[in-house]
Amino acid sequence: MTVATPPAPPGTDRRRPPPRPRRRGDLGAAVLFLVPATIGFVVFYLVPAVRGAWFSLTDYAVLAPGSFVGLENYRRLAADPQFWNAMGVTAYYVVINIVVQTLLAIALAVLLQRMTRSILVRGIALLPYFVANVVVALVWYFMLDYQIGVVNVLLGYVGVDAQAFFGDPALAIPTIALINVWRHLGYTALLLFAGLQTISPQVYEAAAIDGASAWRQFRSITLPLLRPVLALVLVVTVTGSFQVFDTVAVTTGGGPVDATRVVYLYIYDLAFAQLDFGYASAISVVLFVVLLVVAIVQLRLLRANESDNA
Amino acid sequence: MSTTTPRTLAEPAPPEAPEHRPPRRRPPVRWQRVLGWAALVVILLITLFPFYWMLRTAFSDNRALAAQADNLLPADFTLDAFRRVFGLTTLEESLAQGGAGGRIDFWLYLRNSVVVATSITVGQVFFSAMAAFAFARLHWRGRDTVFAVFLSALMVPGIFTAIPNFVLMKELGLLNTFPALVLPTFFMTPFAVFFVRQFLLGVPRELEEAAMLDGAGHARVFLRIMLPMASAPITTLAVLTYIAAWNEYFWPLLVGQSEDVRVLTVALGIFRSQTPQGSPDWSGLMAATLVAALPIVLLFVALGKRIVSSIGFTGIK
Q1: Cross-chain residue pair B313–A195, CB shorter than 8 Å
Q2: What confidence tens digit (pLDDT) does each residue in B147-184 have?
Q3: What share of chain B is helix, strand, coil (3-state, %, to 5)?
Q4: What mean pLDDT is predicted for residues A115-141?
Q5: Which residue of A has its CA nearest to B308?
Q6: What span, in angstroms and rounded, lies between the C-alpha atoms of B287 and B250?
Q7: Is A121 on the interface with B (CB under 8 A)?
Q8: Which of A269, B17, B27, B258 has its CA 20 to 30 A from that of A112?
């Protein structure tokens, strides 16, 4: 998901237009203007969501019409070691990806703010985010190749043995997590950078006059004031991170021995390789619920800290 | 997400109070800046290096790569990789060059990506702008509720709706056609509606009223006033939409495997899986990724400034 701000319109900063003097509403015009978007919303979001929930209660398999099986799919997944493996692998990925990415992004955002106003520097940092996951995955797949990957060549120079980054079950998930850190770092940093811009320079000046060190200013000013933005950034990045698929699909394809079979990939295999649509839908319902709960918990934490920025 | 006034980044620093401080206070510790720049340069190098490596390998001879794995320049410079990727070599030539030998034609996939991304962008941006107009400038009961319902789709993970949408495309007999690739994001995305609405909320009332007094209807206000005024954010949105559509892998993988509608991302995945385990066609693969990445990189270079300034949250609380 992209988060971006349209530039402020010229002339005014009014939040919404005042009520119009006329009595008559614009319902008729509104309906006309909303026809295409509503078609798109109903046909490709609303109905599929309801249908997906329904599939999860059936043994639908595309070729044969499914029949209602109640909560059977959910019972099955609770006892499915593959499902729990997929959830575990995904959680492991999310933790590495989010922790490393967030720490680096905070550091980069602060660096950008202190060092330079250059659009070029920010543009370079942002560049990887706009290249397809598949492209990023393949370039790193080559660079990390066991035989001729340039990273292993460099490791050889400093006396480290070549690593099978994608072939070693212990390394595969961290490797994929770090590749996606590379892709998202600049974007995440720029979101935080935008948050930093809202902190008044006077606060820093006052702290500097009081003799606060740079580290002290970061701990006592930057972090607390950035926390609401940070929480929103985390909601967006965590939600996206749980849905990792492209990178895994074109590099390891789930291997070695299911070490990278993330939940998205598991659902994909169930649905489109085994045509088990009912069961696949049940797992995607669970994923949806997990994402909602994680987002709500994160937003709660944000709300609790809102007074920081009051 | 809420509706605080959007703000641009890169605002100039507020003018400083001149009196109380010595002019041009030097940064107290210079080595901190040196360290900071060093860190920044390292990050930028790590960011740019993979792009360079893709370029360098694409112009390399595949058979020479192994012996020159640490050569910073192309290994035995050649355009053969591009010839293979664009299907300009015979099978024998391709195999002799260390290629995979599978049938590939990246011109075709490039064309398909252009068709799909362009169609999605045109439809999605225009229809989302129409919806945004209804949500931002028209007054009707239930408006904010309907908008909230639209926005709620942001939370739904793609795969949850992808399965039923796939079934729908199958039922309609649209699998492996352009409509299947385009339709789900052709009419709206919650983000696009949100993005345009955010801008339209702040357009001054007076313009609209003047036009209305002159007898213009809503359609005319939308086309003649709102769209031109919103041309900057709409361009930004169009670029973001185009890039997202171009980079999409999951949905095209589900409904667009056949060659005449295969887009670049899907073609890359297939190319990668065709490549033999022992001696992959690395230079061909990197040439193919370059073909997929280059248009977006160029677009980014051309319009990057606008995109960079648009990244940021739209107000919090």
Answers
A1: yes
A2: 999 988 888 888 899 999 999 999 999 999 999 999 99
A3: 65, 0, 35
A4: 91
A5: A123
A6: 22
A7: yes
A8: B17
pTM: 0.86
Please indicate, yes or no, whether residues B223 and B141 belong to a single structural domain of this protein.
yes
- pLDDT confidence of residue A128: 94
Q: How far is B213 from chain A (nearest CA, A)?
A: 12
Instruction: Please give the structure tokens belonging to residue B204.
Output: 């001054």
Expressed in angstroms, the distance from the first to the final Cα of chain A is 28
- Are B228 and B188 found together in one domain? yes
Interface predicted TM-score of the whole assembly (ipTM), two decimals: 0.87
Tell me which residue of B162, B219, B153, B160 sits closest to B190, measured CA to CA: B153
Cα within 13 Å of Cα(A308), Cβ side: 20
Strand partners, A4: B311
Asked if B311 lies within 8 A of A4 by C-beta distance, the reply is yes
Cα separation of B46 and B43, whole Å? 5
Same domain, B158 and B212: yes
Query: Per residue in A278-306, is it b (16+ CB within 10 Å) or e — as a string?
Result: bbbbbbbbbbbebbeebbeebeeebeeee
Q: Is A260 on the interface with B (CB under 8 A)?
A: no
How far is the CA of A248 from the CAs of A199, A255, A256, B287, B290, in angstroms?
A: 39, 9, 11, 21, 20
User: What is the mean pLDDT of the segment spanning A122-141?
Assistant: 93
Cα separation, B314 vs B292, whole angstroms: 31
Determine the residue among A142, A193, A247 to mutate to test chain B binding: the one whose Cβ has the most chain B Cβ atoms within 10 Å. A142
* Residue A282 C-beta-side C-alpha neighbours within 13 Å: 23
Average pLDDT, chain A: 87
Contact B124, B192 (CB under 8 A): yes
CB pair distance less than 8 Å for A119 and B304: yes
Summarised one tens digit per residue, pLDDT across range B76-103 is 888 888 888 888 777 777 777 777 666 6
Domain count of the fold of chain B: 2
* Domain regions of chain A by residue span: 82-309
- For residues B153 and B253, membership in a common domain is answered with yes
Alpha helices in B59-182 (DSSP H): 80-85, 91-96, 106-136, 143-152, 158-171, 178-182
| Chain A residues 157-186 with CB within 8 Å of chain B | 182, 185-186
Residue ranges making up the domain that contains B84: 53-100+275-311
Instruction: Please give the C-alpha separations between residue B295 and each of A144, B109, B291, in angstroms, as whole numbers.
Output: 25, 13, 7
Task: Let me know whether B262 and B284 are in one domain.
Answer: no
The candidate with the shortest Cα–Cα distance to A176, out of A137, A130, A131, is A137
**Cβ of B295 under 8 Å from any chain A Cβ?**
no
Task: Kindly give, in sequence order, each residue whose CB lies less than 8 Å from that of residue A17, ignoring residues fewer than 6 positions away.
Answer: B137, B201, B205
| Closest partner CB to B40 (pick from A51, A115, A128) | A115
Tell me which amino acid residue A180 is: N
Residue B11 placed within a domain:
no
Rounded CA gap, A283 and A32, in Å?
38
Closest CA relative to residue A280, chosen from A270, A291, A293: A270
Average pLDDT over residues B193-206: 89
Asked whether residue B16 carries a pLDDT value surpassing 60, the answer given is: no
Give the number of residues written for chain A.
310
Which CATH number does A82-309 carry?
Answer: 1.10.3720.10
